[in-house]
Amino acid sequence: MAKNLPKETGFYWAKTDGMQWFNAIVQVYGDSPFFKVIGWDHRREKTFSGIENISEFGNKIQEQD
Fold it and tell me: Is the four-CA dihedral 46, 34, 57, 12 of positive or negative sign?
């Protein structure tokens, strides 16, 4: 199971497939506790959905208005 699960919606850094550095940006959306995730894996250059490949969520990315 992924570490540091988000508690609110927004964009987050993430580690996928046991990487040592944050290699993905994910969008967490929906209603708690049933959040959904869609992301971009920079290392593999592809999109993904769900948390099954995420080993850890990082900091929330601050959005500018």
Answer: positive
Query: pTM (2 decimals)?
Result: 0.89
65 vs 52: CA distance, rounded Å = 31
Long-range contacts of 18-23 (CB under 8 A, 24+ apart): 18/55, 19/43, 19/55, 22/58
Where are any strands of DSSP class E within the chain?
10-16, 24-29, 36-41, 46-49, 54-61
* Predicted confidence (pLDDT) per residue in 13-60, tens digit: 999 987 899 999 999 999 988 999 999 999 889 999 998 889 999 999
